[in-house]
Amino acid sequence: MHDTRRTRVVLAVLLVLALALITLDYRDGSSGPVHNLRQAGGAVFGTAESVVSAVTGPFVDFFNHSSGSGSGSQVASLQRQVIQLRTELSQEQLSKAQYRQLSSMLQLAGRGRYRIMAATVIAMGQGYSQTVTIDAGTADGIKTGDTVLNGQGLIGTVTAVNAQTCSVLLATDATSVVGVTLATSGQIGWVTGPGRTGSGSGLLKLQVLDENADLSVGQQLVTSASIHDRPYVPGVPVGVIKKVENRGGSLTALALVQPYVDFTSLGVVGIVVAPPSHNPKFSVLPPAPHVKPVPTVTVTVTPGASASPSPTPSGGG
Amino acid sequence: MRRAAASVVLLAVALTAQLTVVNRLSLPGAGAPDLVLLTVVALGMCSRPATAAVIGFCAGLCLDIAPPGSYLIGEYALVFCLVGYLCGRMRGLLIQSATLTIAGAMAAAAAGEALVALLGLAISDPQVSWTAVQQVLPSAIVYDVVVSPFVLYLVMRAVRWADSLGRDGVAAGQPADGSALLARSLGAGGALSGAALSGATVLGGAGLLGGAGWLAGPVGSRGSGGPRPSRGRGKVHTPRTPRLRDAAGRSGDGWVGGGPRPRLAASAGLRSGRPPVAGRPGRPPRLRPGAGTPGSAHARPPRALPRSPANLRIGAGRRRDGSLGRALGSAASAGGSALRGRPGSGPPGSAFRGRRPAAGRPAAAARPGSAGRAGSYGAPRFRPNTRLPGGSSNDATLRSAALRRQLPGRRANLRLGTGRRHDGIVGGSALRRGALTGRGLGARPVSLRLGSGRRGDGAVGGLSGGRPPWARTRRAAPRFRSGPVSGHSLLGKRARLRAGKRARFGSGRSSFLATWTGGKLGGRSTVWRIGSKRTGGFR
């Protein structure tokens, strides 16, 4: 009833503008005015995010680490006290956890001879995307296409860089495709992300070029070599095969891969600023069957009659 | 402009909180509440459609370009623009009932989430697959629906606070403490209140969010009691439906927009006929049996007098009235000048438009309009105050003021009403400074003003130009009507509207800039349409 002509004009103009932006960004996302817009937004909001995240980060980590633990019906003061003490404890643990993350990441980088730049996750993407912002940018020597990892393994690749921040496309994003090499056998395939799923970090989907590839649960994956090491440097651990899919009629062998990285609680990450001089192959992988794959093996024993008492199957390394 | 600034601040807070906190929380389910969307919805609920669309577009664009950014720039801008527009269309709900408003906000939030998914599927965003939508959308909608009442409450409170800043010059717009609101809302009853409380316990933040305070009904009109049960059971929108505090008043409500604030009521002296305490800074005592609904021109029934806030207020002034209402009055009282013969402010003299005249100009010359000419009580309404730091006083004005004071027949200034913001030429801050000096605080006599101007009455103002000043004056519609004033009477709303209201003109021209700033240039910002639901909109 109050809808004047001007209102409709304003609405139409805005809608057309939005559609034009979508079209422009679809056509040339890496250059042109839309790219400048993104750069400007990154400069402004990236700074704001890093500032805000410095304040709110501990709370977020506290929530993520202690979610699910709720105290019952108690006196309010006691409850407050508990929360306060737990916060202090968690702060203590957080700093220790960060230290652990950093040290393990440095060990991984040292094994692979990567030169990394340590940074922290400050923001996470909206909606259906699986992207994060980290607080390192062109001022730190970050470029588009750098590999991002942490102490567990591959996280993703840098897609956009600003002065102080950069955006990282996680390996679990639906648009992410990572070329991988199966440990020991050297077969080549690629891993795509599941997108946003209910369980936080879903399973990656592995496709191997050779349809007769010998896939088995517990096999480890590392990133394969890329041209100029751009999307991903070689040798970064990606995950282990958790389930081999039924491959009837498929051109490629399919498997589901449990990533090494827990994508729900990303903290300290490292950006590879200089790739190794030689391909580290599988040297970066954790001492494989003993650490990660053991529980997976015992849980999903389907192939044979030998059920639980086989902790280390074939995938030795 | 303050509204725009408040919107920008709210959106910035929502955006950073969304990206740095909410998205990083590993909540159960794939989705997460979208604070930016909810803020757009809430802001749209108290804006006009065009403004709301602009707000939504800007918020969506910021969300698009803020790192890590969306897949394509413009996705969220498109969706939020539409959502904002829809919420702007739903703005009428705000003056009808809180229940409908919250339900509308929930529906808009859910629609926004669905539109995001739909647009992603339509432009084949690789991140938005059908399986992802199935996983994310339900939980996201649930989160949004749960969180939206609280965001709505907070945003409306912030917007109202920003508006009150403009009205008073101080940040003292807190209407009541949360417990009172909570009690009132509980008194209002209804399933919604319970739902809100359960929602609060779900979030574990009942105290933080002020509980269900958004159900506060018309405050102050009924004293401390809750809203009375309505009589028209069968009707959907009974006059006593609990409404959001930010809704505009209806006839008989006793407050407009925000309701009389406890601070003002406490500082007014005449609550029980008590003379004001000498030397106490504050507002001059006045009689006010309830403020009118915008455009309704209803007086409060006399029986409400003892319990009402202290200022007699029949036909309250509007902003930019040109009347030197309470604003200048209080400053003058603080300054110690005894304004016994203060000229009343006639209705049609709206000539000042909130601007200060140049310092040193005589008062009469400072009025481009025809305050002295057009009204029957059109005595000069402007009274220079010598203590005001901003000037506007010199010997000439003093002399003319003294001269005026001696004139016979000007003393009977019945002034039942009070000015609004931008009333006088002196803004609130200057006044407050004057009041803070505390020089010679004397007891002020009661100044009664029968009928103050309404905003937009009378002169269109100096902006139009071309015509002589008197030609710009437009006589106001008669403003005191003794229509059916018994607030929640047996008559229906429509009947009361017919009896008690009269359509007025909207003046001023509109522009795109004015759309953003929420008003028209050079005139009243809102046209009250009688007989439609827009009566008394949200300014």
Outline the biggest β-sheet of chain B.
none
Radius of gyration of chain A: 23 Å
In the predicted model, the low-confidence regions of chain B spanning at least 5 consecutive residues are: 169-240, 248-293, 295-539
Mean pLDDT score of chain B: 56
Structural class of chain B: mainly alpha
What is the overall number of helices of chain B?
15
What oligomeric state do these chains adopt? heterodimer
N-to-C SSE string of chain A, H for helix and E for strand: HHHEEEEEEEEEEEEHH
Shape of chain A: globular
Task: Please describe what this structure looks like.
The complex is a heterodimer of chains A (317) and B (539). Chain A has 317 residues and is α+β, with helices and mostly antiparallel strands. Chain A is built from 5 helices and 12 strands. Helix content of chain A is 33%, strand content 23%. Chain B is mostly helical. In chain B, helix 1 (2-22) runs antiparallel to helix 2, helix 4 (75-89) packs antiparallel against helix 5 and helix 10 packs parallel to helix 13 (428-437). At the A-B interface, helix 1, helix 2, strand 1, strand 2 and strand 5 of A face helix 1, helix 3, helix 4, helix 5 and helix 6 of B.
Per-chain topology:
The complex is a heterodimer of chains A (317) and B (539).
Chain A: H1 5-27, H2 32-66, H3 76-112, E1 115-124, E2 131-134, E3 147-149, E4 154-161, E5 166-170, E6 177-182, E7 188-192, E8 204-208, E9 220-223, E10 237-244, E11 253-259, E12 268-274, H4 288-291, H5 293-299
Antiparallel strand pairs in A: 1-2, 1-12, 2-5, 3-4, 3-12, 4-5, 6-7, 6-9, 7-8, 8-11, 9-10, 10-11
Chain B: H1 2-22, H2 35-45, H3 49-65, H4 75-89, H5 98-122, H6 130-168, H7 178-188, H8 191-203, H9 262-267, H10 326-335, H11 371-374, H12 395-406, H13 428-437, H14 493-500, H15 512-517
Helix pairs in contact in B: 1-2, 1-3, 1-6, 2-3, 2-4, 2-5, 2-6, 3-4, 4-5, 5-6, 10-13
